[in-house]
Design a protein that fits this description.
Distance between the termini: 48 Å
Radius of gyration: 18 Å
Largest sheet: 8 strands, mixed
Order of helices and strands: EHEHEHEEHEEEEHEHHEEH
Helix content: 25-40%
Structural class: alpha/beta
Number of helices: 8
Strand order of the largest sheet: 3-2-1-4-10-6-11-9
Strand content: 15-25%
Amino acid sequence: MKNPTVSIIIPVYNAEGTITRCLDSIIHQTYSSIEVIIIDDGSSDLSGSICDNYATKYNYIQVIHKKNEGVSIARNLGIKRSLGEWICFVDSDDWVENLYLEKFVENKELDEDTMVSQGIMYDFISSSDENFPFFIYPDKICAEEEFADLFTKYNLLHNGCPVSKLYNKNLLVKKSIYFNPSISTHEDHLFVLTYLLYCKKIILSSSIPYHYMIRNELSLSTKYHTSEELIEVSRLLIEKIIQCKSKYHFSQ
């Protein structure tokens, strides 16, 4: 059997209230050369069972159950188990419109050293605030010599969300680009910045198919970060940004 073109990695932890909506949005994608890798990161609710039910119905969905070790280790495991040429991420409390994957792969200029980035819609679910698009881009293909202008004009270095982006599996493996499990904040931003350091082409899409769910109330699961961890994260972020500035020769 031919390997899928795109692997969708979904880390799940105690998401029984949202995972059905998430997976329903995946199975209704217009693009079909896919595999879905769900990493159940030691959920104590019904999330694992719900995901298993989907896997029994759809042969392109697999569920990996593991002890709870955090989202970075879960995503890294998904990367290592993936068979697709390309990888994207969806979080278990979010959902995507049915053109999410098709908009990634419709461009014929996809090369190994490429990143594709789409917009994100912020959905507020516990207030009367209206949803609004975030990280809005034009349809644009940029080579490496255009990155300086691109980063400045569209604030690409501010977009550290790992979702709504397409990454090349071979480039991730070849350059050992994984999420840092030793930190629990901004690990996703570091992942994206590291990938950008090895890109030679960035494809922007005006599509905004990813719905990022925002709760207004304080979360009981909000993590406490020590001052030592925050200092280390700041150091790592500054280091990556300096590397990007040095490589792509921009000042802002």
